[in-house]
Amino acid sequence: MSSLRTVVETLVPEGDGFIIEAPGVWAQGRTLYGGITAALAHEAIRRSHEGLGPLRSAQFAFIGPAAGKLRFTSSLLRRGKSSALIASDCFNEEGPAARALFVFGNGRDSKVTHDFLAMPGVPAAAMCNPFRKEGGAAPRGFWNNFETRLASGGRLFDKEATRPEFAVWTRFLDTGGADATTALLAIADCLPPAAMVLFPQPAPISTMTWTVDVARVPRSLDGWHLLWASSEQAADGYSLQNMAMWNEAGELLAVGRQAIAIFA
Protein backbone atom coordinates (compact mmCIF):
# COMPACT_ATOMS: atom_id res chain seq x y z
CA MET A 1 0.00 0.00 0.00
CA SER A 2 1.28 3.46 -0.92
CA SER A 3 -0.34 6.78 -0.14
CA LEU A 4 -2.21 8.60 -2.85
CA ARG A 5 0.20 11.52 -2.63
CA THR A 6 3.19 9.21 -3.06
CA VAL A 7 1.71 7.91 -6.31
CA VAL A 8 0.78 11.38 -7.55
CA GLU A 9 4.30 12.65 -6.94
CA THR A 10 5.71 10.08 -9.38
CA LEU A 11 3.89 11.98 -12.15
CA VAL A 12 6.68 14.07 -13.68
CA PRO A 13 6.77 16.66 -16.49
CA GLU A 14 8.09 15.70 -19.92
CA GLY A 15 7.70 17.92 -22.97
CA ASP A 16 4.15 19.24 -23.19
CA GLY A 17 2.75 16.70 -20.75
CA PHE A 18 3.39 14.48 -17.75
CA ILE A 19 4.49 10.86 -17.59
CA ILE A 20 4.16 8.09 -15.03
CA GLU A 21 4.81 4.37 -14.88
CA ALA A 22 1.40 2.92 -14.06
CA PRO A 23 1.66 1.83 -10.38
CA GLY A 24 0.68 -1.80 -9.96
CA VAL A 25 -0.55 -1.22 -6.40
CA TRP A 26 -3.33 0.97 -7.88
CA ALA A 27 -4.21 -1.40 -10.72
CA GLN A 28 -7.28 -3.47 -11.48
CA GLY A 29 -6.12 -6.46 -13.47
CA ARG A 30 -4.15 -5.24 -16.48
CA THR A 31 -5.08 -1.57 -16.12
CA LEU A 32 -5.31 1.18 -13.55
CA TYR A 33 -8.87 1.50 -12.25
CA GLY A 34 -10.78 4.48 -13.59
CA GLY A 35 -10.63 6.62 -10.46
CA ILE A 36 -6.84 6.79 -10.29
CA THR A 37 -6.62 7.47 -14.04
CA ALA A 38 -9.06 10.36 -13.54
CA ALA A 39 -7.11 11.57 -10.51
CA LEU A 40 -3.82 11.61 -12.42
CA ALA A 41 -5.44 13.48 -15.31
CA HIS A 42 -6.68 16.12 -12.88
CA GLU A 43 -3.28 16.34 -11.23
CA ALA A 44 -1.62 16.96 -14.61
CA ILE A 45 -4.14 19.70 -15.37
CA ARG A 46 -3.77 21.54 -12.09
CA ARG A 47 0.00 21.63 -12.56
CA SER A 48 -0.34 22.98 -16.11
CA HIS A 49 -3.07 25.61 -15.78
CA GLU A 50 -2.99 28.30 -13.11
CA GLY A 51 -5.87 30.08 -11.44
CA LEU A 52 -8.54 27.45 -12.02
CA GLY A 53 -11.71 27.54 -9.95
CA PRO A 54 -13.12 24.47 -8.20
CA LEU A 55 -13.87 21.41 -10.32
CA ARG A 56 -17.58 21.39 -11.21
CA SER A 57 -17.85 18.47 -13.62
CA ALA A 58 -15.75 15.94 -15.51
CA GLN A 59 -16.49 13.39 -18.20
CA PHE A 60 -14.26 10.40 -18.91
CA ALA A 61 -14.11 7.84 -21.71
CA PHE A 62 -11.89 4.86 -20.92
CA ILE A 63 -10.50 3.73 -24.26
CA GLY A 64 -7.75 1.21 -23.60
CA PRO A 65 -5.65 -0.25 -20.78
CA ALA A 66 -3.94 2.37 -18.61
CA ALA A 67 -0.80 0.29 -18.19
CA GLY A 68 2.93 0.64 -18.64
CA LYS A 69 4.32 4.10 -19.31
CA LEU A 70 1.47 6.61 -19.38
CA ARG A 71 1.48 10.14 -20.77
CA PHE A 72 -1.05 12.81 -19.77
CA THR A 73 -1.60 15.93 -21.87
CA SER A 74 -4.14 18.75 -21.63
CA SER A 75 -5.37 21.69 -23.68
CA LEU A 76 -7.45 24.71 -22.74
CA LEU A 77 -10.65 24.80 -24.83
CA ARG A 78 -12.20 27.95 -23.42
CA ARG A 79 -11.70 30.30 -20.51
CA GLY A 80 -14.30 32.85 -19.42
CA LYS A 81 -14.71 35.17 -16.46
CA SER A 82 -15.59 32.36 -14.06
CA SER A 83 -15.16 29.06 -15.90
CA ALA A 84 -12.59 27.06 -17.82
CA LEU A 85 -13.03 23.97 -19.99
CA ILE A 86 -9.96 21.78 -20.40
CA ALA A 87 -9.55 18.61 -22.45
CA SER A 88 -7.23 15.87 -21.24
CA ASP A 89 -5.80 12.77 -22.87
CA CYS A 90 -4.00 9.77 -21.44
CA PHE A 91 -1.84 7.64 -23.73
CA ASN A 92 -0.16 4.32 -23.15
CA GLU A 93 2.73 3.17 -25.35
CA GLU A 94 0.30 1.82 -27.97
CA GLY A 95 -2.15 4.71 -28.18
CA PRO A 96 -5.06 6.39 -26.37
CA ALA A 97 -6.02 5.03 -22.95
CA ALA A 98 -8.50 7.69 -21.79
CA ARG A 99 -9.99 11.00 -22.84
CA ALA A 100 -11.60 13.54 -20.51
CA LEU A 101 -13.24 16.93 -20.33
CA PHE A 102 -12.90 18.95 -17.12
CA VAL A 103 -15.08 21.95 -16.26
CA PHE A 104 -13.83 24.35 -13.59
CA GLY A 105 -15.84 27.28 -12.29
CA ASN A 106 -15.52 29.90 -9.56
CA GLY A 107 -18.49 30.40 -7.27
CA ARG A 108 -20.76 33.44 -7.61
CA ASP A 109 -23.70 34.97 -5.75
CA SER A 110 -26.98 33.22 -6.46
CA LYS A 111 -30.54 33.39 -5.12
CA VAL A 112 -31.03 29.72 -5.97
CA THR A 113 -29.88 27.28 -3.28
CA HIS A 114 -31.28 23.82 -2.61
CA ASP A 115 -30.13 20.28 -1.87
CA PHE A 116 -32.76 17.54 -2.24
CA LEU A 117 -30.43 14.54 -2.61
CA ALA A 118 -30.27 13.46 1.03
CA MET A 119 -27.86 10.82 2.28
CA PRO A 120 -29.60 7.48 2.92
CA GLY A 121 -30.33 6.69 6.55
CA VAL A 122 -27.70 4.04 7.27
CA PRO A 123 -25.72 2.90 10.34
CA ALA A 124 -22.39 4.57 11.07
CA ALA A 125 -19.30 2.94 9.62
CA ALA A 126 -18.28 1.56 13.02
CA MET A 127 -21.52 -0.43 13.11
CA CYS A 128 -21.07 -2.03 9.67
CA ASN A 129 -19.21 -5.12 8.49
CA PRO A 130 -16.51 -5.08 5.77
CA PHE A 131 -17.81 -4.95 2.22
CA ARG A 132 -14.95 -6.90 0.67
CA LYS A 133 -11.86 -8.81 1.76
CA GLU A 134 -9.18 -6.54 3.18
CA GLY A 135 -5.55 -6.73 4.21
CA GLY A 136 -3.73 -9.98 3.49
CA ALA A 137 -6.95 -11.67 2.33
CA ALA A 138 -7.55 -9.14 -0.46
CA PRO A 139 -6.33 -9.70 -4.03
CA ARG A 140 -3.34 -7.62 -5.11
CA GLY A 141 -4.24 -4.24 -6.57
CA PHE A 142 -5.89 -0.93 -5.89
CA TRP A 143 -8.41 -2.34 -3.42
CA ASN A 144 -5.71 -2.53 -0.74
CA ASN A 145 -5.59 1.28 -0.60
CA PHE A 146 -9.13 1.52 0.81
CA GLU A 147 -11.22 0.33 3.74
CA THR A 148 -14.93 -0.35 3.18
CA ARG A 149 -18.01 -1.13 5.26
CA LEU A 150 -21.35 -2.25 3.78
CA ALA A 151 -24.04 0.13 5.06
CA SER A 152 -27.00 -1.12 3.01
CA GLY A 153 -27.85 -3.15 -0.08
CA GLY A 154 -26.31 -6.31 -1.45
CA ARG A 155 -22.85 -7.79 -1.60
CA LEU A 156 -21.22 -8.94 -4.80
CA PHE A 157 -22.69 -12.18 -6.23
CA ASP A 158 -25.55 -12.01 -3.70
CA LYS A 159 -28.10 -14.68 -4.61
CA GLU A 160 -30.56 -13.28 -2.09
CA ALA A 161 -30.42 -9.69 -3.36
CA THR A 162 -33.49 -8.29 -5.12
CA ARG A 163 -31.86 -5.12 -6.48
CA PRO A 164 -28.33 -4.35 -7.79
CA GLU A 165 -27.63 -1.54 -5.37
CA PHE A 166 -25.44 -0.79 -2.35
CA ALA A 167 -24.26 1.98 -0.06
CA VAL A 168 -20.73 1.51 1.25
CA TRP A 169 -18.75 3.53 3.78
CA THR A 170 -15.33 3.98 2.21
CA ARG A 171 -12.09 5.66 3.23
CA PHE A 172 -8.49 5.86 2.10
CA LEU A 173 -5.96 4.06 4.23
CA ASP A 174 -3.58 6.94 3.52
CA THR A 175 -4.10 9.99 1.30
CA GLY A 176 -0.71 11.36 2.34
CA GLY A 177 -2.20 14.85 2.14
CA ALA A 178 -2.97 14.67 -1.59
CA ASP A 179 -4.94 17.46 -3.26
CA ALA A 180 -8.56 17.11 -2.16
CA THR A 181 -10.07 17.18 -5.67
CA THR A 182 -7.55 14.62 -6.91
CA ALA A 183 -8.47 12.44 -3.93
CA LEU A 184 -12.21 12.90 -4.53
CA LEU A 185 -11.87 11.57 -8.09
CA ALA A 186 -9.77 8.63 -6.88
CA ILE A 187 -12.24 7.49 -4.22
CA ALA A 188 -15.49 8.24 -6.08
CA ASP A 189 -14.85 5.42 -8.56
CA CYS A 190 -13.25 2.84 -6.31
CA LEU A 191 -16.23 0.50 -5.84
CA PRO A 192 -17.16 -2.27 -8.28
CA PRO A 193 -20.25 -1.77 -10.47
CA ALA A 194 -23.54 -2.28 -8.64
CA ALA A 195 -24.62 -4.75 -11.31
CA MET A 196 -22.13 -7.22 -9.81
CA VAL A 197 -24.54 -7.75 -6.91
CA LEU A 198 -26.64 -9.86 -9.30
CA PHE A 199 -23.74 -11.58 -11.09
CA PRO A 200 -24.17 -15.36 -10.80
CA GLN A 201 -20.39 -15.72 -10.48
CA PRO A 202 -17.24 -13.58 -10.82
CA ALA A 203 -16.74 -12.16 -14.32
CA PRO A 204 -14.78 -9.33 -15.97
CA ILE A 205 -16.16 -5.79 -16.21
CA SER A 206 -14.91 -2.65 -17.96
CA THR A 207 -16.08 0.91 -17.30
CA MET A 208 -16.59 2.67 -20.62
CA THR A 209 -17.70 6.15 -19.57
CA TRP A 210 -17.99 8.04 -16.28
CA THR A 211 -19.51 11.44 -15.66
CA VAL A 212 -19.01 13.03 -12.25
CA ASP A 213 -20.61 16.30 -11.16
CA VAL A 214 -19.10 17.88 -8.05
CA ALA A 215 -21.31 19.56 -5.45
CA ARG A 216 -18.53 20.54 -3.07
CA VAL A 217 -14.90 19.62 -2.39
CA PRO A 218 -13.95 19.33 1.29
CA ARG A 219 -10.57 20.42 2.57
CA SER A 220 -9.54 16.80 3.04
CA LEU A 221 -10.72 13.39 1.85
CA ASP A 222 -9.51 11.68 5.02
CA GLY A 223 -12.26 9.96 6.98
CA TRP A 224 -15.30 7.95 5.92
CA HIS A 225 -17.44 8.74 2.87
CA LEU A 226 -20.67 7.02 1.87
CA LEU A 227 -20.61 5.82 -1.74
CA TRP A 228 -23.94 4.74 -3.22
CA ALA A 229 -24.48 3.04 -6.58
CA SER A 230 -27.50 1.53 -8.27
CA SER A 231 -27.64 -0.31 -11.58
CA GLU A 232 -30.79 1.00 -13.24
CA GLN A 233 -30.72 -1.17 -16.35
CA ALA A 234 -28.62 -4.02 -17.71
CA ALA A 235 -28.93 -5.91 -21.00
CA ASP A 236 -26.84 -7.08 -23.95
CA GLY A 237 -23.67 -7.06 -21.84
CA TYR A 238 -23.93 -3.46 -20.61
CA SER A 239 -25.07 -1.82 -17.38
CA LEU A 240 -26.16 1.78 -16.72
CA GLN A 241 -25.73 2.98 -13.16
CA ASN A 242 -26.37 6.02 -11.00
CA MET A 243 -23.95 7.08 -8.24
CA ALA A 244 -23.63 9.56 -5.36
CA MET A 245 -21.19 10.37 -2.56
CA TRP A 246 -21.61 12.06 0.85
CA ASN A 247 -19.30 12.85 3.76
CA GLU A 248 -19.98 11.76 7.34
CA ALA A 249 -21.84 15.01 8.01
CA GLY A 250 -24.35 14.06 5.30
CA GLU A 251 -23.16 16.73 2.85
CA LEU A 252 -23.45 15.77 -0.81
CA LEU A 253 -19.99 15.81 -2.46
CA ALA A 254 -20.65 14.40 -5.93
CA VAL A 255 -23.06 12.55 -8.18
CA GLY A 256 -22.23 10.44 -11.21
CA ARG A 257 -23.27 8.06 -13.95
CA GLN A 258 -21.44 5.18 -15.59
CA ALA A 259 -21.85 2.95 -18.62
CA ILE A 260 -20.16 -0.38 -17.97
CA ALA A 261 -19.41 -3.38 -20.17
CA ILE A 262 -20.10 -6.62 -18.32
CA PHE A 263 -18.99 -10.09 -19.35
CA ALA A 264 -21.29 -12.22 -17.23
Mean pLDDT over all positions:
95
Strand order of the largest sheet: 1-2-6-7-8-5-11-14-13-12-10-9
From the spread of the alpha carbons, the general shape counts as: globular
Report on the biggest sheet. Answer: 12 strands, antiparallel
Number of helices: 3
Q: DSSP strand (E) fraction?
A: 35-45%
Rg (CA only): 18 Å
Using the 3D structure, state the CATH architecture.
Beta Barrel
Unreliably modeled segments: none
State the CATH superfamily name.
Answer: Acyl-CoA thioesterase, double hotdog domain
Kindly report the CATH topology.
Porin
Number of strands: 14
- The figure for the number of domains is 1
Structural class: mainly beta
* Percent range of helical residues: 10-25%
- What string, H for helix and E for strand, traces the elements in order? HEEEEHEEEEEEHEEEE
Alpha-carbon distance between the termini? 30 Å
CATH class wording: Mainly Beta
Describe the fold and architecture:
The protein is mainly β and 264 residues long. The chain has a single domain (4-107, 117-262), classed as Porin (Beta Barrel), CATH 2.40.160. Helices cover 11% and strands 42% of the residues. It contains 3 helices and 14 strands. Strand 7 (83-92) and strand 8 form a beta hairpin. Helix 2 runs antiparallel to helix 3 (180-188). The chain is globular and about 50 Å long.
Write the layout of secondary structure elements.
Elements: H1 4-8, E1 12-14, E2 17-21, E3 27-28, E4 31-32, H2 34-48, E5 55-62, E6 69-79, E7 83-92, E8 95-105, E9 146-153, E10 165-172, H3 180-188, E11 205-214, E12 225-235, E13 238-247, E14 252-262
Antiparallel strand pairs: 1-2, 2-6, 3-4, 5-8, 5-11, 6-7, 7-8, 9-10, 10-12, 11-14, 12-13, 13-14
Helix pairs in contact: 2-3
